[in-house]
Amino acid sequence: RTLRIGLIPGDGIGKEVIPAGRRILEALPASLGLKFEFTPLEAGFETFERTGAALPDATVEVLRSGCDGALFGAVSSPSHPVKGYSSPIVALRKKLDLYANVRPVKSVIPATATASSSSSPIKPVDMVIVRENTEDLYVKEEKTFDGPQGRVAEAVKRISERASHRIAAMAGEIALRRQNIRAAGTPSIHASPLVTITHKSNVLSQTDGLFRTTARAALAAPRFASVAVEEQIVDSMVYKLFRQPEAYDVIVAPNLYGDILSDGAAALVGSLGLVPSANVGEGFAIGEPCHGSAPDIQGQGIANPIATLRSTALMLEFLEEEAAAARIYAAVDANLAEGKLLSPDLGGTAKTDEVVEDILRRL
Amino acid sequence: RTLRIGLIPGDGIGKEVIPAGRRILEALPASLGLKFEFTPLEAGFETFERTGAALPDATVEVLRSGCDGALFGAVSSPSHPVKGYSSPIVALRKKLDLYANVRPVKSVIPATATASSSSSPIKPVDMVIVRENTEDLYVKEEKTFDGPQGRVAEAVKRISERASHRIAAMAGEIALRRQNIRAAGTPSIHASPLVTITHKSNVLSQTDGLFRTTARAALAAPRFASVAVEEQIVDSMVYKLFRQPEAYDVIVAPNLYGDILSDGAAALVGSLGLVPSANVGEGFAIGEPCHGSAPDIQGQGIANPIATLRSTALMLEFLEEEAAAARIYAAVDANLAEGKLLSPDLGGTAKTDEVVEDILRRL
Ligand SMILES: CC(C)[C@H](C(=O)O)[C@@H](O)C(=O)O
Ligand SMILES: CC(C)[C@H](C(=O)O)[C@@H](O)C(=O)O
């Protein structure tokens, strides 16, 4: 099978990590029977400055008609509002109807740690945040007007039954898939599948109320009979995320809460540089590291490539190439467990390329 | 001076902790020259079930015309939507124009800890979250309609120049006040005052953009010349909150982000049972523990009274009784630093009353 992969490095360290994704795909063992064709594509703030469009139509067209999946790096947000500029990744998610943003967050106990010490303050984490990716405040319908006491701006938060249903069903499927992997013998901190629905329906009774009741209904389907379902109000979810991260398996949330929760969960495992995501639609997936364009370290060759490598694996999972994905995850975990070649965000001194090469060796 | 204080225990453990607030006020040394008159007032889910109103008009009237301040416990959110019920504390904040929700989060190094061990994973925390308290998604303007693919609900997120300006100015004042207290010799992890403006203007360019530019403008006043100002996008703020909590002094945020951030910050200091808040308007303040009604422990007499005791002190601060407030803070800190009489949320076995009595002894 030949997979056609679009490569969208974007800005900043996006340019340094996306090549790592390409390299690991090219290095996959031939026995997996996978071939790849890569198409470089443009998007981002630099593209906007050069062409006037942060997300050129050509990029969307090629992804739509000529690709099976893609890797997206990161884009810079200008530090002051720039007329006509808006985030290309948000636009891409909507244009390709990539309705789920899937963000697994998992700790790897380093070989040097006394993993079994019960007094250890580091708690094991193995969760997936399943973030709705097309609506909520991200519809970006805003207006500004003059009120009697100064300017007033309003934004629309939109929650639909359709989007809430499909994201909750996706969370249920992911919970089942994780359970199957565990049943096949992968060690895990979770004994049985759990989906936690996050919302703020105590304040937003209609919007978040619709998310909540729709998600409940979707997860009540017979298919999900083995999946336990619970709820957490978003503020208390953030609290619990830090107090009891080991209690969570799959968390499903509207767009903005999912955005916030996934950065919070990344903090639990030590670095945003470790956390992957996939933007998933029908038969299409874009892998995207959760970190941003990191202007502070750009150009130094020290960005952590692991978020991108894991995002590459996650993309493969959603393209139903699970065996290939598993190889990448295992190679990354082996690098982390040994803990010798780590990038600076993890306390090491290795360069991006050195980390990539160490992981390729373990493939 | 006689202060007239409304007491609104609300539901659940609210009933167990609000009496502690009253006791500590009554126990303040006579040398402070303060007298208190208490008025018990009703609000909450039980009140709703009994009277049909979660926030009786009488409660609002007495607070408005017969009180200088108040203590609010907690209210239960029904686990399923109940027609006609909505949160009385959200309504109260708006009705009394208590535009600032001030939430200090501070770690006390327990006497048993090796505070100076640099390898300690516990980082010192000393921050105040200043949350806008009247608008954002809390305007609760929602509607539901039938779309072509099922039901759709929309909520309004409203950000005004006026509310953004006054909350940022409040954050600036608090930063200055904290600096004065430090200058008077109180040890602190902060060398100079800093306000961090939190928003998501990379997506919400008009609403959060207005919050951001207005807050910047308010903090550019000559009065705040000594206050450093920076910004964090809310998702990355949650990440940084957990990776580098020691870097933050005063954080100012729109209502919903402030709600989420303050629960997150509470996790940093070990328990929501420690974290106070004050709802502050012109010449009026309501102290309110950040924890909820905690139905799981209600009736057992084991709720941590410290959030309420600190909220009582915080209320006094905003009623310009800083000496009295300082006495309460010091007594609470002494209890925690000794670490002998702690409630179960902190790993101890003491009952609410035992903790209160220990703190009263130290007053
Ligand atoms: C860059 C920004 C628009 C984006 C988002 O909010 O979705 C980012 O934070 C993310 O999580 O992918
Ligand atoms: C109970 C709820 C409505 C409230 C809020 O969201 O403001 C609570 O979480 C708080 O922080 O005081």
UniProtKB/TrEMBL annotation, chains A, B:
<dbReference type="Pfam" id="PF00180">
    <property type="entry name" value="Iso_dh"/>
</dbReference>
<keyword id="KW-0520">NAD</keyword>
<dbReference type="GO" id="GO:0006099">
    <property type="term" value="P:tricarboxylic acid cycle"/>
</dbReference>
<dbReference type="GO" id="GO:0009085">
    <property type="term" value="P:lysine biosynthetic process"/>
</dbReference>
<dbReference type="GO" id="GO:0006102">
    <property type="term" value="P:isocitrate metabolic process"/>
</dbReference>
<keyword id="KW-0597">Phosphoprotein</keyword>
<keyword id="KW-0479">Metal-binding</keyword>
<dbReference type="GO" id="GO:0000287">
    <property type="term" value="F:magnesium ion binding"/>
</dbReference>
<comment type="pathway">
    <text>Amino-acid biosynthesis; L-lysine biosynthesis via AAA pathway; L-alpha-aminoadipate from 2-oxoglutarate: step 4/5.</text>
</comment>
<dbReference type="InterPro" id="IPR024084">
    <property type="entry name" value="IsoPropMal-DH-like_dom"/>
</dbReference>
<dbReference type="GO" id="GO:0047046">
    <property type="term" value="F:homoisocitrate dehydrogenase activity"/>
</dbReference>
<dbReference type="GO" id="GO:0005739">
    <property type="term" value="C:mitochondrion"/>
</dbReference>
<keyword id="KW-0460">Magnesium</keyword>
<dbReference type="GO" id="GO:0004449">
    <property type="term" value="F:isocitrate dehydrogenase (NAD+) activity"/>
</dbReference>
<keyword id="KW-0457">Lysine biosynthesis</keyword>
<keyword id="KW-0028">Amino-acid biosynthesis</keyword>
<feature type="domain" description="Isopropylmalate dehydrogenase-like">
    <location>
        <begin position="4"/>
        <end position="359"/>
    </location>
</feature>
<dbReference type="InterPro" id="IPR019818">
    <property type="entry name" value="IsoCit/isopropylmalate_DH_CS"/>
</dbReference>
<dbReference type="GO" id="GO:0051287">
    <property type="term" value="F:NAD binding"/>
</dbReference>
<protein>
    <recommendedName>
        <fullName>homoisocitrate dehydrogenase</fullName>
        <ecNumber>1.1.1.87</ecNumber>
    </recommendedName>
</protein>
<keyword id="KW-0560">Oxidoreductase</keyword>
<comment type="similarity">
    <text>Belongs to the isocitrate and isopropylmalate dehydrogenases family.</text>
</comment>
